[in-house]
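Ticket #4471: structure output looks truncated?

Reporter: J.K.
Steps to reproduce: submitted the chain below (505 residues) through the standard prediction queue, then opened the result file.
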Amino acid sequence: MRRTILNYLVVGLLMAFFSCNAFTAFAESVSMGILPRPLHCDVSSTEYIPLDRVVLSGANAEAQSWAVRHLKSWYGKFAPEVELAAKDVTRMGDEEYELIVDADGVKISARTLQGVRYALYSLRQMVIARTGTKEVAGWIAPKATIKDSPKVSFRGVHICWFRETEPWEVERLIRLAAYYKMNYAVIESWGTFRSSVAPWFGWKDGTMTKKEIKRLKAIADDLGITLIPQINVFGHATQARGAAGKHATLDVNPKYQPLFEPLMGWNWCLSNPETRKLLQELIKERYEAFGCPPYFHIGCDEAHLPSCPECASKPYSQLFLEHIKAMNETISSLGARTMMWHDMLIERGDSRWSGFVVNGSKETATGFLQFPRDIIICDWYYDGVKPSYPTYDYFQEQGFSVLACPWNNADGIKAQSRYAYEVGTMGVLGTLWHHYFGHSLAKIYYALSNSMWNPETDVNINIDHYNLQRVHHHLRQIGWDMKLKNPRHAGTYYDEIPPEPFLNN
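Returned output as attached by the reporter:
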């Protein structure tokens, strides 16, 4: 009898232990499922509150209108009522928010519209449909207290608009960046911009029209993302992938050869005054098309040494300096700051940069030292963890603002973001390149969102199966927002069956 009772007690304790651990794990999974992970988050594992009422404290009528509109879009006829309440939030930061879900409903405190946006993005990632019915009959959210704000001010993603890219793909990436609380997106045109200044410039079937940019800008503005245009004014003048051997202009318009270096047309010809004139006109056109943003990216990575006799006959450091200064002067006159890649600004063979990305010559590295200091250096490195990233220090010591620019290595994203934060850089600009779909897309966004928001995070940013499913869910929500009708456009992969090596289920 005693043994039986003892067995029951042991079983009961074990059940309680594992149940407690299960609840704890579940609560942790909810908090971890919020991307980026909040700085302070306490989520219940058992208590859920009907999503009937949202109270905004400290917000204004604009924030209330935004909340009403988006909650209606997300939850339809079951959207909660939104009320305003007075509260002193003057000490809160521009992007800070507090989110409390309790018996009184949802309470959000924020000083700005951006703070309200971020609170509601977090809320949406927690909310689930009421169970027990065939169709949605309401929504519930776990009891929670979240206090959150970013530690990095510039949190951006670099998006390429290739010839084959459709506008909905770009929209999808912009929406996901906003949902994960990034605030900037650089849009690089690979010959796809339909120019009025130079209709012959780029692919005739390019889908980046001014009308489409206006539409995407309106979406980005509404979601809290600033779009930044990019034109390559040095290398990559082909506006096509190097491996393809194509040139968006010269393949069909050979008469414009004098604007480009003879070797493949890869570089713009810096000694031709018509080159500078054209690029300045294109910058102005693109800047206006994007609604006059605070930044403009001019590329300048992976250029070749001059093959033009005129360029080769002149002091190339001075030619390079004059060219970049002219581009910067144009951008400054428009009221924006210039952004550019870093790799041509440091010299190959310089032992200081061993193991990092270096494509410059002595001439470009010398000319760079006389650049205007309002230029922002976008320092890209795509591999894993390094003890330090000395190029960040070097450019800052020279008086420049720096953005850390990782790619698809999760550990590298975390390490670079942390080092950039420690040495006081401007922020982080993650790059996507061709990763519009697939496992790498999820990995990049997951790692970037957590590392940008809080570079000191202890979260393992190498995406696992659970967090991959979270990204799937978020992409589905974005698909609902976009009102996608083609299921191929939703999810992590474009096609239903992903390519190898991800056929593991």
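Triage note (M.O.): checked the attachment and the full token line is present. Residues 1-6, 8-29 have pLDDT under 50 and may be disordered.
Status: closed, working as intended.
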